[in-house]
Structure formats: C-alpha cells, structure tokens
Amino acid sequence: MLIEDELNLFKLRFVDNYSEIEIAHKYNISRQAINKRINKIRGLLVEEFRE
C-alpha cells in the first residue's frame, strides 16, 4: 500500500470517524492490516513532532 493510501485510512478512521469494520469492507482488507497501517502513520507523526 502506498503512503497516500495509509494516510487516507488514517483520515477515514480519525477524521471521518469510520469504524475499522466500515474501512475493512470499503477496502476489502483485514482489521489487523488497517491497524498496522494506521500505526505506521502514527509512528511517523510522533517522529515528526519530536524533531
């Protein structure tokens, strides 16, 4: 998945307030895959704000 797709998942989950299940159905991926990608973006954000 591209970083833009991961950002879109993050946006859907936390800005648009979609549930993991709604996102899983929309993208046809598992909830675990969603969480893995969201955590990747969280890690990047934390790293960016530490600098």
UniProtKB/TrEMBL annotation:
Signal sequence interval, chain numbering: none
Matches recorded under Pfam families: UPF0122 (PF04297)
Function: Might take part in the signal recognition particle (SRP) pathway. This is inferred from the conservation of its genetic proximity to ftsY/ffh. May be a regulatory protein.
Family, as annotated: Belongs to the UPF0122 family.
Protein name: RNA polymerase sigma-70 region 4 domain-containing protein
Organism whose genome encodes this protein: bioreactor metagenome
